Amino acid sequence: MAAIVLNYPNRTARPRKATSESPFSRWLIIGIAVAFMALMFVLPLVVIFQEAFRKGWEGYVEAFDDRATTHAIWLTLQVAAITVPLNTLFGLAAAWCVSRFQFRGKRLLTALIELPLWVSPVIAGMIYVLLFGAQGLFGPSLKEHGIKIIFALPGIVLSTIFVTFTFVARVLAPQMEAQGQAEEEAAMTLGANGWQMFWRVTLPKIKWGLLYGIILCNARSMGEFGAVSVVSGHIRNKTNTVPLHIEVLYNEYQFVPAFAVASVLALLALVTLILKTLTTTPRGAA
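The chain above was modelled as a monomer; its predicted structure follows.
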């Protein structure tokens, strides 16, 4: 009589995870990712600093001993000093409205917060030229009152505000919605007014997200090129920010000064990545 053999599944075997891969596949994917990052991120940084120090440390320092360069750096710092605080206030107000209130137009406000991510910075600059330029909608009226926006600091600030106002609000709104408002309601029940509730309850909960948004906003404001290029007019010693000044130096075949100034923005990018990592740790997310 033939024996009947029943094959039962091995109940002691561990179930295979959906994310588990063979060692070859895992290392292949990691290798592709590392190679891509080395090609697109590390190699350009190496080239920037290599060209910046091509004439040695003295040539690098000499690149900054130029009136146009120092003015471009100073102007960039001025723009960031104006843009970042204003966008921080706007981001806090927008995130508060989106996460705490239900009102008509809420979806429209959310869409407008995302608008700079979908509109080309060059188009944003053109809009300001059409509004405040000499032949723009408000240009003649502004000229009569001696107010100059395009080809001046106000135009650079306005265009930079437009392309960067999304960062703080976009970071804070989902975080504040996820945290809810139970603690704020408890504070109001105990007699806290609006400012006390914000400073003692809301701000401690969102401080790391707020810092993260400020870091991104500052980095973008210092590195913005497209919108600023349209409204600035590329006037040396007047409206050239650091990115625009780098372009001018490169077009004039001053490669060492161009890469030396570019290394400043590269260092800013590295510092931004480090701060971004520190503010997105589990402590920061708490």
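The CA atoms of residues 156 and 228 lie 5 Å apart.
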